[in-house]
Amino acid sequence: MANELLLKYGCNPNQKPSRIYMQDGSDLPIQVLNGKPGYINFLDAFNSWQLVKELKEATGLPAAASFKHVSPAGAAVAVPMSDTLKKIYFVDDLELSPIATAYARARGADRMSSYGDWVALSDTCDKETATLLAREVSDGIIAPGYTEEALAILKAKRKGTYNVVQIDPSYIPAPVEHKDVFGITFEQGRNEVKITEDMLKNIVTENKELPDEAKRDLLISLIALKYTQSNSVCYAKDGQAIGIGAGQQSRIHCTRLAGNKADIWYLRQHPKVLSLPFKEKIRRADRDNTIDVYISDEYMDVLADGIWENFFTEKPEVLTAEEKKAWLSTFSGVSVGSDAFFPFGDNIERARKSGVQYIAEPGGSIRDDHVIDTCNKYNMVMAFTAQRLFHH
After folding, report:
1. Is 29 inside a domain boundary?
2. Choosing a second label site near 103 at 20 to 30 A (CA), which of 115, 146, 217, 247?
3. Known catalytic residue: 69?
4. Residue range 224-249: average pLDDT?
């Protein structure tokens, strides 16, 4: 251990010098086991570690996160996966441990955004997780430990330069944190609020039936939001985030962005998508991009330009707007969390289109009554947490 670690540069190559260090003179709570993580890598590492640590504490399940640019692309706990999910996450050929399952879910939620991610694991990285990671494009990983087999696999990744960081799970940060902006130091108490099921007790809608699975998914969404750049909204289902809208100036734009990602997640499970006739040697990243185009309205242009021949053995049938609408009409049981109150009922209207039935938000808007009425119109369940979760 050491008190400081010099970095190549800051956010950009022109920002030098750069380092991470402990102001109180103590040792850093991390060890770099391989590679040379940079400034943004460590921002992702420390935010993502907090997220998975809290998810494990809140649910009792191994947790994983896939981070990009200081916000999660995905977060999940170790809930067994269906064969369909294994297929769309490209892990149906792998043996998965609980922690590997959590990461497969976290990365699989939004594979395009997870391309080149930073990985966080709540538990020791095992051979199964390292084997999964070895074939994905990723920048690095933080975990409380690594098995010998896992470390050997990860050290061989990216021609030996893959970033591997081990963190002391007993580390407790100082209660007051600082940040410099424009040469001026900001100081605040750390956001130590514990997100538990107690936050979900104040149900303000007529429907007050909140099943255990929905409670778990709401906790996942709220904890993910605690480490997502605000404004932010998170859709969750089946033990994982399925759509995160981060850093938008308008809450409805967060809700739409996250909802669109959730829709794509569900559309990837459509039988026509599952049976796309890909050529054998098409890389996973290219498959992700192609599926995204196939689901979108751009696919008609791809057909017209003949580009489909680059990826498929034969021309796939179009997934029509009517078919997409019919498939999405079966989407249900989704939970959504918001890091601040929904100011208008339009957020509820948009969330409903993506199968949302359960909602957690702080409350406190002058239009709370309108938001509650909109939930009641669709027999949704909404809890007011009384806790804003802004993160900047």
Report:
1. yes
2. 247
3. yes
4. 96
